[in-house]
Write a structure and sequence with these properties.
- It contains four helices and no strands.
- The longest helix has 29 residues.
- The protein is mostly helical and about 130 residues long.
- The protein has one domain.
- The chain starts with 5 loop residues before the first helix and ends in an 8-residue tail after the last helix.
Length: about 130
């Protein structure tokens, strides 16, 4: 798979999770908190894209360079989610408490997809073994 496929898989995984969670909440008679779900979903898609950027910038580097870029990508993913949560909690927009649960679900789903994509990128990068 190509690195650019992450631009398709991450939003797809977030949307499928949101649709499944919305259906489950509706079936149980709970308020799904659509505004919180929308903000958390959009932020998670943005965080997923931020997680792919370091490996795109690493280009065709050695396997060690691409692995480090992948690690930085997972950190960028985490920090974008933390920044989103901080902005929502400090700005206090009219978003219900369901936002926290949606953000948690979308964080894990997007992280799993991102980790699988980045592991494939590292696996396919060229091994640069230098004898010193």
């Amino acid at each position: 798979m190509n690195r650019m496929l992450g631009l398709l898989w991450i939003p797809l995984a977030v949307m499928v999770t949101g649709a499944g969670g919305f259906g489950l909440c509706t079936a149980l008679g709970w308020n799904p908190g659509l505004m919180g779900m929308t903000v958390a979903g959009a932020g998670s898609i943005l965080a997923g894209f931020a997680g792919i950027v370091p490996t795109l910038l690493a280009g065709r580097g050695s396997q060690a360079e691409v692995a480090q870029a992948a690690l930085i990508g997972t950190l960028a993913h985490l920090f974008v989610h933390a920044l989103l949560a901080a902005v929502v909690f400090l700005a206090k927009p009219p978003i219900g408490p369901a936002f926290v649960y949606w953000l948690l679900a979308f964080y894990w789903v997007s992280l799993i997809v991102l980790a699988v994509l980045l592991a494939g990128v590292v696996r396919r990068s060229r091994a640069d073994i230098r004898g010193n």
